[in-house]
Amino acid sequence: MKLSEDSGRHVGPVFEIVTYGLAPELVNEVINSVRLFSPEDIKLRHVSEVPKEYLNVIRNQYNGFLVSRWIATLRRKEDSVALGVLDVDAYVEPLNFIFGLALPTLNTATVYVTRLKTLASKDKLLARIKKEVIHELGHVFGLEHCRDRRCVMCFSNTLAEVDVKDYRMCRAHYVKLKEKIPGVSSELLLSQALNP
Ligand SMILES: [Zn+2]
Ligand SMILES: [Zn+2]
Question: How far is the CA of 4 from the centre of ligand 1 (A)?
Answer without folding.
Answer: 30
